[in-house]
Amino acid sequence: MKVVVVGAGKLGRKLAETMVRENIDVTVIEKKQSEIDEINEHLDVLTVHGNGIDMSILKELRIEEYDLLVACTSNDETSTLICTLAKRLGCKMTIARIRSPEYLKQVEFIKSELGIDHVINPDLATAESIEKYLLKSHSFYSDGFASGRVQMLDFNIGTMMEFVGKKLMELEDFDDILIAAISRDGNIIIPDGKTVLEDFDLIHVIGQTDKIEALSDKFDEKLFDEPIKKVMILGGSNIAFYLAKNLIESNINVTIIEKDRDVCNTLSEKLNDVLIIHGDATDILLLEEENLEGMDAVIGTTGYDESNLLMGLMSKQQGVRRVVSKISKESYTKVIDRLGIDAALNPIYITSSKILKIIRGGRIQSISLLIGGDGEVTEILLSDNLPIIGKTLEELELPKGTIIGALVRGEKVIIPKGDTVLKGNDRIIVFSLKENLKELKMFFRPEKKGGLFGGLWNSSKDIR
């Protein structure tokens, strides 16, 4: 499979890095030499110094031989035009990253008239993830596994004596619930029964909703607490616009604080039922004047990770129940678990998950990158002609660092054990560290047609 990524920003680099791990032939086009140098230093890809909108570059690459082009430049119009040119020159599939709210109502027209196969809006996707978290208590990374029948939640154990210092096999009331992954100091651990929990571990718990609620009730943790009624959003970004627009449709009282007066005026024109405050979102006195303590949730969406994390921490200290911070720097994932912030999200990982699902196609139902990008959760619908069908998990001998966290058979959710037998049309939810993905796909390779992960990652219907 051959893919062109146009734009070597944060999203472009993350996509290239992920695809290289999957043995995809990647070409990166970027007009900034500094970005090209960084890519060449860290990734084994073909790089082209130039403008992706230059047809001569696309022709020289023989774009008609490529399966996919992903345009993620800093300009929406440029990304759109690049995709159109690539499609006209014979590229099999194109994906454009478009972020501007002005294009939100025109997406279908853009796709049909300009020949773009998929449009990805990172800000909208991030806002939808926050909304889901606030209103439904879903984890950012659950992404509706098994049509909502399987629930995955992030559960920070803090210093709770019921967890800290215990092996997973020693935990009580976990018969039908699985701790599938642990985030510790920014690293993802795929545990086994002998793994010992430590202070402030963030455990990724998977199971049926009623089982998760029972666990919540037992330890008096408000994973499913009182409804959110009042939300304060710090920063008037596109994420803030999309989130506020969605929340007011759910009758949530929303306040946005933004220091740029022009942005405030624009938001006021588009969001009639939202209170827009012109001021510095990092001014704690201003936040207190605007009833910070009375808010059910505070969302940090400014362009500065430090401000989002600091104000999130201060909001938590003021008694706000739910605090969410947007981050973009991977280095900050090492400290998030210990700050007491309820959730931190990276739009790059949310967007990458959506694009990876498109790339892999086939029977891949959903993909989620855990925070930091070191872990991945993939939902797969098994066909009945795979060689793994009829085998127990114990017989499979999955690679270390990989676990099947849940299995859905019909309407029944199963937390699998070693003697669980895989059957056709089962939905499996697989947790894996990024370094295990290549081995995992090889492990599931059948005798003839490229394997579970070979065939599913490259849908015969979408990408050949």
Q: What's the helical proportion of residues? A: 25-40%
Gap between N and C termini, in Å? 7 Å
Instruction: Provide mean pLDDT, rounded.
Output: 83
Provide the gyration radius in Å.
Answer: 23 Å
The dominant shape is globular
Poorly predicted regions are: 137-143, 446-464
How many strand segments? 21
Major sheet: size, sense and barrel closure? 6 strands, parallel
For the largest beta sheet, what order do the strands appear in spatially?
3-2-1-4-5-6
Task: Return the structural class.
Answer: alpha/beta
Question: Proportion of β residues?
Answer: 15-25%
Q: How many helical elements?
A: 15
What would you note in describing this structure?
Helix 1 (10-21) packs across helix 12 (347-360), helix 6 (122-136) crosses helix 8 and helix 6 crosses helix 12 (347-360). Helix content is 31%, strand content 23%. The protein is built from 15 helices and 21 strands. Mean pLDDT is 83; it is low at 137-143 and 446-464. The chain is an alpha/beta fold and 464 residues long. The protein has a six-stranded parallel sheet with strand order 3-2-1-4-5-6, with helices on both faces.
